[in-house]
Specification:
It is a single chain. By secondary structure, this protein is α/β, with parallel strands linked by helices. It is 38% helix and 16% strand. Strands 4-10-9-8-7-5-6 form a seven-stranded mixed sheet, with helices on both faces. A four-stranded antiparallel sheet has the order 13-14-17-16, with helices on one face. Helix 3 packs across helix 10. The protein is globular and about 75 Å long. It starts with 16 loop residues before the first helix and ends with a helix. The relative contact order is 0.17. This is cysteine desulfurase. One of its GO terms (molecular function) is pyridoxal phosphate binding. It comes from Streptomyces filipinensis. It holds the Pfam family Aminotran_5.
Length: 416
């Protein structure tokens, strides 16, 4: 009997962090003798039991490869896989499941677009506009494809508060601009750019826009149709789902023009030594055996998250982020990077006399997990003259009490 993916209990229910915490087993463990405080959500989120149980149930009773299988379990696994595609489409407000491609995560999605659309769509003299705040995964693939096609990667500068300089962005756009790439929320500054307005402006120049939603989708609702995004990507593990699974949305008319990137099984219609034909979209972009269990886990994660009132979740996280900013301001000398308004709960900071690694190590002794380093966003840190910083990133299951413990530990570190 195939496992059923956990479904939301009808209409969205009210939200409290306690409701969320009740479902997440790892939050109830201890680290170094202290209750775990997980403040590394920008790197990966912890998983609710519903996701864990879905993965276990798939492998225990439904494990099969998908598509073309004539037996019962193959049909059941295929149905779950394609139901997951439909669930992602609904979650993103996409026009149809056929506009969703399953990938390993945001990085693979961006590389797919760079290699499939970019190689054919870019040429000498074309511009790719890339804000300085971008994650390396939204910089390096464009540098590589620009080298191959003799296009240019043009950085868009930041304001001192960590926001994208919109005047500079408008000035850099031209009829040479073929593509703009934007993070919907920065993984190092928490900045949430005015993506809808930036897309509309880019479209005036007939440029396409790819939005990296890895840090956004867990924090607020996203509607790709309303945004008018040409491409939108996210990773499952940053929205309470498994690692190794993510999704790429592309406008159907664009996806139809793109050639396959990787080749092999599953993405073909027929093969002979004289001629090979490819499967229709989106399957032509899913070579080999996909992360089938991961899709079921991702579907469960989306069900879990959307069972809560998303507006209530967003409001809670906004208030928690404001509280954390105020609390961190009580630590003498602590500098919070990128004080732009409307940020998500990403709090990257420095503390005089202490390296980022030293800060993270000291907090870990108290059971507090934060990230230290360049956060795969070296140009953004360089904007502040830094090579590394500590980062505490919040999620819906974090609490004020956990923020208070973070601040207390930082004060102890500072006191020596």
């Amino acid at each position: 009997m195939a496992p059923t993916v956990a479904q939301p209990p009808g209409a969205a229910q009210g939200f409290t962090p306690e409701l969320a915490r009740r479902d997440v087993p790892v939050l109830h463990r201890t680290v170094n003798g202290h209750p775990l405080i997980w403040l590394d959500n920008g790197a990966t989120t912890q998983k609710p039991r519903q996701v864990i149980e879905t993965l276990a149930a798939f492998y225990a009773s439904a494990n099969s490869n998908i598509h073309r299988g004539a037996h019962t379990m193959a049909r059941e696994a295929t149905e779950m896989y394609e139901a997951g595609r439909a669930a992602v489409a609904r979650f993103l407000g996409a026009p149809s499941p056929e506009s969703i491609v399953f990938v390993r995560g945001t990085t693979e999605a961006i590389n797919l677009v760079a290699q499939s659309w970019g190689r054919a769509g870019l040429g000498p003299g074309d511009d790719i506009l890339v804000p300085v705040l971008e994650h390396h995964a939204n910089i390096v693939p464009w540098q590589r494809v620009a080298q191959e096609t003799r296009a240019r990667v043009v950085p868009v500068p930041l304001r001192p508060d960590g926001g994208i300089d919109q005047d500079a962005y408008a000035d850099l756009l031209s009829m040479r601009t073929r593509l703009v790439v934007i993070s919907h929320a920065s993984n190092v500054l928490g900045t949430v750019p005015p993506v809808r307005e930036m897309i509309a402006l880019a479209h005036r120049y007939r440029a396409l826009v790819l939005v990296d939603g890895a840090q956004a989708v867990a924090h607020f609702p996203v509607d790709v149709t309303d945004l008018d995004a040409d491409f939108y990507t996210f990773s499952g593990h940053k929205i309470y789902g498994p690692t190794g699974i993510g999704a790429l949305y592309a406008k159907p008319e664009i996806l139809q023009t793109m050639a396959p990137w990787q080749s092999g099984g599953n993405m073909i219609e027929s093969v002979s030594f004289g001629r090979t034909t490819y499967a229709p979209v989106p399957h032509r972009f899913e070579a080999g055996t996909g992360h089938i269990a991961g899709v079921t886990g991702l579907t469960s994660a989306l069900d879990w998250l959307t069972a809560f009132d998303r507006n209530a979740v967003a409001d809670y996280e906004t208030r928690l982020t404001a509280y954390a900013q105020e609390a961190l301001a009580t630590v003498p000398g602590l500098e919070l990077l990128g004080p732009a308004a409307g940020r998500i709960g990403v709090l990257t900071f420095t503390l005089p006399g202490h390296s980022a690694t030293e800060i993270a190590d000291r907090l870990d002794r108290d059971g507090i997990a934060v990230r230290a380093g360049h956060h795969c966003a070296q140009p953004a840190l360089a904007h502040y003259g830094l090579e590394s910083a500590a980062r505490a990133s919040l999620a819906l299951y974090n609490t004020r009490e956990e923020v208070d413990r973070l601040v207390a530990s930082l004060l102890e570190l500072q006191a020596g």
